[in-house]
Structures are given as C-alpha cells and as structure tokens.
Amino acid sequence: MGNLIKVLTRDIDNNGGNFFLDFENAQPSQSETEVWEEVNQVLTESRVILEDLQSYRGAGEEIRQAIQSPGVEGVQEKAWSAVVPLVGKLKSFYEFSQKLESSLRRLLVILTSAASTPTQHLEQKQALARQFAHIMHFTLRFDELKMTNPAIQNDFSYYRRTISRMRINNLSADAGNEVNNELANRMSLFYASATPMLKTLSDATSKFVSDNPDLPTENTTDCLSTMASVCKVMLDTPEYRSRFTSEETVLFCLRVMVGVIILFDHVHPAGAFVKTSNIDMKGCIRVLKEQPPSSVEGLLNALRYTTKHLNDEATSKQIKTMLQPN
C-alpha cells in the first residue's frame, strides 16, 4: 500500500489525493448508509435499463412496410402496434435519466461539501465515490449502446409523425398513446444528442455549480480531477491493476475516467485540456490507446465529440493530434 500511496501522491499532488479508491469492494459506513441506499435503488434499476437497451431491436421492418404501403390499413396498424411498446421503453429510458441526474446531485452535495476537501471526501466516503463511479460507468455504457442503435430515433420519429397525422385527421391516438406532446418534445431533445445520458449529467453538474454559488467551483472540479487521476494510476500501474479481481474492472475504470474528464471539461472555466486542469490528459489518452481499439473507440469518440474545450486554442497540438481518428 505504501508504494501505491507514493504513486498516487506523485500523480495527483496538486490535489493531495494519496489513496486507493476501491471500486470493487468499498462498503458504506453508518453515516453513508442512507444516501447509499437511495442511490443503490437507482443503480439497481440501471442494470435493467441496460438490459432493455441491449435487447432493443426496433420496428424497422414494420415501419418500412407501412411507408411502402400507406393505404393498407392492416399494415399501418401492425407498425403502430409494434412501435407503441417500444416508445414506452424509450420513455422509461428518458425518465431514468432524470433519476440518475437526481442521484448524481445527491452525491455531489456530499462529495463537494465544505466540511472536508474533495480528496478527503473521496478517501473517507469510498462507498459513495464508488456509486458515483457506477453512475459514470452506466452513463458511458448507455451512450455507447444508443449510438450504435439507429432504430431508437427511427422508431421515435415514426411515432411522432403518426401521432401528428392522427391529430390532423382528428383520429384518436389515445389507445396505447404512451407519450403526450410535451413529453415527446423533451424526449426528442434527449434522443437528438449522440450521448444523451452524458449530456444530461454534464448539464446537471454545470447546474449544480451554478445553483451553489457559495460552494467554490474548485470543490467540484477537484473531486472530478482526483477521480480521473486515481483511475489513470490504477490502470497505468501493473502491480495495482493486477489487484482487480475481474478484467471487467479495467473497462469500468476507463469509462469512469472518461466520464469524469467530460464532466470536468464542462464545469471548469478553462476545461480539461489546459495544463492547469490537474488532469494529465496526455497520460489518460495514452492509457486509452494502449487498450484493444474495439473496447475504447467509443470512449475516444466521447472525448473527441462531447467535450467542450478540445478545440480551444489553449489545447496543445499534441493532445489534438493524439485524439485524431485513425
């Protein structure tokens, strides 16, 4: 453990983060239990959400036939019957994003409070830090799956077009109409984003900072940069990486690292890519690029396309080159 502390201290000495964050086994203390149980309910549901998203096949064939045969009533009804339950799933994904946002804010309140430094919070409340990491892991995984499934937006677009047509023709759309117009508008904005869960959490983190003007922004950004640095060190040091009991923990750490970097980049006034950000971006990108390309391409794309400051003049040419697609 002594060597681990030295490695962490060297890597994030700006934050004073000299601890090992146990993503696999950290359990809540008595003072953490109430919040831990609240967030754990959401994380339990997150596993169901991912299973539903992984099994989401869409109604592409039914929609194609309905478009090709606009005057055949039976074909239209078949497409509508196929799409309505799918939109119910899309509604549940969207509503879950709001629960996730609430859990993130609940954890941020504790992990950034003025009672201790953000580093001390992460060290002393490892079970809550672990839950924060699980939220980031889910977010990146959800968005990876969403980006590779065009059926989601196709199904929802067909649903909205059909509802609109029914309204114009004064036809009742109440049977199975899962989504009213106001909710449909919000869902449309949500799914229009390439990474909807990440955007939700980025916006929520920025709003958390603006809603708490008495809390220094550094409390939030230091919390995020410390977690990013801890992830990088655990991935970058073979003797510590070997402590993971599952290979899946490697991908977990990678997703968490990328997720907190993106949140940091949206909250920090200068972003994650400047030298003063306390995040070793070159090191983080290098760690990503050392993994099998198939497992990290989505994470590299998240850094390329969902960060706020990558293309700023202050970002070094080396970092921009490192993130160029092959």
Summarize the structure.
The chain has helices at 2-11, 33-54, 60-68, 73-111, 118-124, 126-147, 151-168, 181-192, 196-211, 217-236, 238-241, 248-267, 281-289, 293-306, 317-322. It is mainly alpha-helical and 326 residues long.
Number of helices: 15
Q: Name the beta content range.
A: under 5%
Number of distinct beta strands: 0
Distance between the termini: 38 Å
Uncertain stretches: 1-18
> Secondary-structure element sequence?
HHHHHHHHHHHHHHH
Q: How would the global form be characterised?
A: globular
Alpha-beta classification: mainly alpha
Q: Please compute the radius of gyration using only Cα atoms.
A: 22 Å
Main β-sheet description? none
The overall pLDDT average reads 87
Tell me roughly what share of residues is in helical segments.
55-70%
What does this structure look like?
With 326 residues, this protein is an all-alpha fold. 70% of the residues lie in helices and 0% in strands. The protein is built from 15 helices and no strands. The longest helix has 39 residues, at 73-111. The radius of gyration is 22 Å and the shape is globular.
